[in-house]
Specification:
Arc Repressor Mutant, subunit A, single chain, 2 domains, globular, Rossmann fold, 8 helices, alpha/beta
Length: 234
């Protein structure tokens, strides 16, 4: 079955470029020129998409707002932000709003297809893994990572995670007490094939701390190993 992609881009030329190249590579694509239209399509089709591509700058509801709404509706949807801006602050805003990745304009067809393919594969692989591991749980102190429900429990209270957050946390839990290099997280969670800034790892770690640490500013469990990576401490 073809992987389904929702494309939201207000510039017709760019939208056509994206849609044509995705369809040429076998994706089932729905397109929208506004954030309102993208949200409507997502709801009408009951969220049956693997990946959403969202332009950051949109008329009406902007891309960040659309991203947050889609993320609230689905923890497993892969979200990629499209932006003409190269500043780090804009990338961080997108990732902090729930996006999994970003592509800076202008981009090549091969880069776009590689990013979407990688994200689709990860969503599918993790769905299969969760099905096969039904009932499996990883424990770390007061925390239990539930591989079936795709969440972490903190003292028995479930906390929902995005796909990326879950993947990172599973990696940290599986290596509890040991350093996990940023580069290794980047490779395993986002895959190879195109250059990515390791800042994407740091932003997602920040989101995880906001969800699970009592004091995100003074984390007790997701510990930074300066200049190298992170480790889980129970």
């Amino acid at each position: 079955m073809a992987k389904r992609v929702l494309v939201c881009e207000d510039e017709a030329a760019i939208r056509d470029f994206v849609v044509i190249n995705l369809r040429k590579n076998g994706f089932d694509v729905r397109e929208a020129e506004t954030g309102e239209a993208a949200l409507r399509i997502f709801m009408e089709e009951e969220g049956r998409f693997h990946v959403a591509l969202l332009d950051l700058m949109l008329p009406g509801i902007d891309g960040l707002t659309v991203c947050r709404e889609l993320r609230r509706a689905s923890d497993t949807l892969g979200i990629i932000m499209l932006t003409a801006r190269s500043q780090e602050a804009d990338k961080i805003k997108g990732l902090s709003s729930g996006a999994d990745d970003y592509v800076t304009k202008p981009f090549s067809p091969s880069e776009l297809v590689a990013r979407v393919t990688s994200l689709c594969r990860r969503v599918e692989v993790n769905a299969d893994a969760l099905h096969q591991k039904a009932g499996d749980r990883l424990t770390g102190g007061d925390y239990v990572l539930d591989l079936r429900r795709h969440c972490i429990e903190k003292k028995g209270v479930p906390i929902e995670l995005t796909q990326v957050e879950f993947d990172i946390l599973e990696m940290l839990f599986s290596n509890a007490g040991r350093l996990v290099e940023r580069a290794d997280i980047l490779q395993r969670v986002w895959g190879g094939g195109s250059a990515r800034d390791e800042k994407v790892v740091d932003v997602n770690i920040r989101r995880l701390r906001m969800k699970i640490e009592d004091d995100p500013g003074e984390p007790e469990h997701i510990i930074t190993v300066w200049g190298r990576g992170y480790r889980w401490q129970s």
